[in-house]
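Q: What structure does this chain adopt?
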Amino acid sequence: MTSRQNSLERAWFIAVVAWSIIRVIFADVFFAKYGINIWIFAGVEAVSAPVFAHSTAKMVLTLSQHKIRESIFWGVVTLITFAAPDIYLLTTGKHLPWLAYLIVIGIMVIAGTISIIRMRSKAEELSRASR
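A:
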């Protein structure tokens, strides 16, 4: 793995962890009153964030190397770890307003779309660089 790839992975890891911290604060402020146990949510975030960061990096790498089976595996891990905190939030909240569902699902769709576009771009970039 090149130094540039290591730097990109580290930067991605830091960004994912920072986003997770923001999500925990947001959940505490807006969702705790609906029965969300913020410590369980924070635990789900703490477990899923590093796995998500690692799995997305592995998925990009395997896609760039045209290792389809491996990239599918890492894609599934990415999807599960991406959705786990939100699934917890939406399934344990009591009497959440419909707007809460709309916002959480909207953020999932927007963040997921941005992630897919960026991963695809990085995979193509790495693929071109390895030729």
